[in-house]
Amino acid sequence: MRYKLTLEYDGTNTLGWQRQLDGPSIQEYLEKVLEILSGQHSEVAAAGRTDAGVHALAQVAHIDFDTSMEEWKIREAFNANLRQLEAPVVVLNVEKAPDGFHARFSATGRGYIYRLLNRRAPSILLNNRVWWVPVPLDVEKMQQGAKYLLGKHDFTSFRAAACQAKSPIKTLDRFDIEKKGDEIIFTVEAKSFLHHQVRNMVGTLKMVGEGKITPQEVKNILEAKDRTKAGMTAPACGLYLSKVTYSRQEFSNKI
């Protein structure tokens, strides 16, 4: 029986989603628990391989059990064992999955939010949760710059050098920027993203907000297809995988 898991985690002290040889990962914690519960090692596949330091509000993964179990019992068993491991991850929801379901390949869309704290003083409570930028940023100009990124484009200028995607062509369905108190929230949605694409776009729009480049220059950077033309890669601590969507109605990330 295959089950779909919706997960929340803190990526601060992990090497990201994927199992690594030199440090803890979210995948490793979950696979340890799955082995405890099933008696055998099995891979836990996710909708997206988040980087070290990146958080998740609603990551999706799937697991396979030889025997059928009630969904709530799986959730409680996972969370009890994850607490024993002091793992920075919890299972929010468990659903039975249909034949052929795959957390990554069945996904029809993904959403991220990026949190930027824009005030003179840093935050103790939000340490490792936001990107602190003490210089005032012009949100309206950043919104103008973000509009040039919407739609289908070659995003080479915002692609990490180590990106393994076959093509730099992606379609950005949503890019909203809003100010909430001292925070600036970036909300981005697409079917899929290139490695570091969101963080590189945020880093470039920060330059717009600072007045270092104009909103129109974002279009020029995009068309240059040259990573060196874009801004810095924003820190991982501000990025959250916020949603994963599927075509079937029953997979709407109910929590």
In short:
The chain is α+β, with helices and mostly antiparallel strands and 255 residues long. Helices cover 24% and strands 29% of the residues.
Topology record:
Blueprint: E1 2-9, H1 26-38, E2 45-46, E3 55-64, H2 71-84, E4 89-96, E5 107-117, E6 131-132, H3 139-147, E7 151-154, E8 169-180, E9 183-190, H4 197-210, H5 215-224, E10 239-246
Parallel strand pairs: 3-10, 5-6
Antiparallel strand pairs: 1-3, 1-4, 2-3, 5-9, 5-10, 7-8, 8-9
Helix pairs in contact: 1-2, 3-4, 3-5
- Helical segment count: 5
User: What percent strand?
Assistant: 25-35%
**SSE succession:** EHEEHEEEHEEEHHE
Structural class: alpha+beta
- Rg from Cα: 19 Å
Name the poorly predicted regions: none
* Biggest sheet overview: 10 strands, mixed
Number of strands: 10
| Amino-to-carboxy terminus distance | 21 Å
Name the shape in a single word. Answer: globular
Average pLDDT figure: 95
Helix content: 10-25%
